[in-house]
Specification:
Number of domains: 3
Number of strands: 11
Structural class: alpha+beta
Distance between the termini: 133 Å
Largest sheet: 7 strands, mixed
Order of helices and strands: EEEEHEEEHEEHHHHHEEHH
Low-confidence stretches: 1-11, 155-188
CATH topology of the largest domain: Serine Protease, Human Cytomegalovirus Protease, Chain A
Mean pLDDT: 78
Radius of gyration: 48 Å
Length: 407
């Protein structure tokens, strides 16, 4: 079988190759090359280990496809098969056995370069070849496969200026742009050039200027993200506020302090709803202090019972209830308010005095004998000022060693 060696320096390559023929190629030179996740450390030791692993795996043939199509879910048609690998002083070499389509593509110069796709370890050393591709966009400084002129070797990758190497794709070395004939295989227009264009920078902008522009974009992105989060939070707060307003309006007959209820709802909507759903309003509330009349049945009884006396008794009883309820209800509310006022005043002015009992419209206070007169005056004053009515409220205070003596 005919073998054409295509990777040696200063060799003159044939212009064509046929299907079934073998060519020896340089898969990757030695050097450090940039990668989108870091750097590819293409060392002699790494390539030695890669070849040893390939041999330990049984020296499987490695697919050579077109433009890494098989790595991206595309066609797996073979341009060639890599049947041998070896590590040498100038890099990693492979022997290609060309297919008819691969040979025709190279001979017709539709493809001129190759690009490896491999797995790398955490430090970036290639560990295993996945596939190799024929391409016109090499990312590593590899020579042409055919038609290369003498002394047309690419510049070593480790001597390339910063920013001039193409970033690889996730499958391996990736693809770049082919160089002009007779020049190095360094891509004409690499990713940094594209990045300069996208950022609106001049072609001669330095890597530091590119990074500064990227940092500025990142800061702008973070600012926009923060503003978006603030707007979303404000919108959420406004929606919750409107929901709380609606709730306190719907529950108005159960609420004494609208603002307090609204704040409680905003802190815990579900808990507040559950609490109010558990509240039962009496069927016939009587709240005379608020001016709401009590509902009394039988006052205007429409149906006449068989016993006329029974009807008269029902009606008179209902009238008494209607008369007494607002009076007794108001008295009960007044004494409750008086207890609150007196207790607060005692805590403020006479902490040694204690409100200990309420009996109907009376309050019983216990205090040292030497301040009994002052405490009595305070209790009387607070009870008389508990509410403003059309008639005056009067309170009489007495004191003694027992409740009986104070009577």
């Amino acid at each position: 079988m005919k073998t054409t060696r295509a990777a040696f320096k200063n060799s003159i390559l044939p212009k064509s190759v046929k299907g079934g023929e073998e060519i020896e190629v340089l898969v990757s030179p030695l050097g450090t090359f940039p990668h989108q996740d870091g750097e590819q450390l293409c060392t002699r030791e790494a390539f030695d280990a890669l070849v040893e692993k390939w041999r330990a795996d049984g020296e499987p043939e490695i697919l050579v496809d077109f433009d890494h199509a098989s790595e991206t879910g595309g066609a797996t048609e073979a341009a060639a098969w890599a049947t041998a690998l070896r590590s040498d002083e100038d890099g990693l070499h492979a022997t290609f056995r060309m297919t008819d389509k691969g040979a025709e593509a190279l001979s017709a110069t539709r493809y001129r370069y190759l690009s490896p796709a491999w797995y790398v370890d955490e430090e970036g050393h290639p560990t295993e070849l996945s596939t190799i591709a024929l391409t016109n966009r090499p990312n590593l400084p590899v020579p042409r496969l055919l038609n290369r002129k003498p002394d047309a070797e690419p510049a070593p990758a480790q001597n390339a200026e910063a920013g001039e190497a193409h970033l690889p794709n996730p499958a391996g070395a990736g693809e770049g742009n082919p160089p002009e004939e007779g020049n190095t295989t360094e891509p004409q227009k690499n990713d940094m050039d594209k990045l300069r264009e996208m950022l609106g920078l001049a072609a001669e902008a330095t890597d530091e200027e590119v990074l500064a522009a990227v940092d500025a974009l990142r800061a702008e992105r973070d600012q926009l993200r923060s503003e978006k989060e603030q707007m979303e939070a404000a919108a959420k707060e406004a929606a919750l506020d409107a929901e709380a307003d609606k709730f306190v309006t719907e529950q108005g007959d159960k609420i004494a302090d609208r603002d307090a209820c609204k704040n409680a709802y905003k802190r815990d909507p579900e808990g507040t709803r559950a609490l109010f759903n558990a509240i039962r309003i009496p069927a016939n509330p009587a709240e005379p202090v608020d001016g709401k009349p009590a509902r009394v049945v039988d006052v205007n009884a429409a149906q006449k019972p068989a016993d006329a006396d029974l009807l008269a008794n029902c009606k008179s009883g209902a009238e008494r209830i209607a008369l007494n309820t607002p009076i007794q209800g108001t008295a009960a509310d007044l004494i409750k308010l008086a207890m609150i006022r007196v207790d607060a005043a005692l805590r403020r002015d006479f902490p040694q005095a204690k409100l200990i009992l309420q009996v109907h419209d009376e309050l019983i206070v216990e205090c040292p004998e030497e301040i009994a007169a002052q405490v009595a005056a305070l209790v009387s004053r607070e009870m008389e000022q508990v509410a403003s009515l059309n008639v005056p409220l009067t309170a009489e205070a007495k004191w003694g060693k027992s409740w009986y003596d104070a009577k």
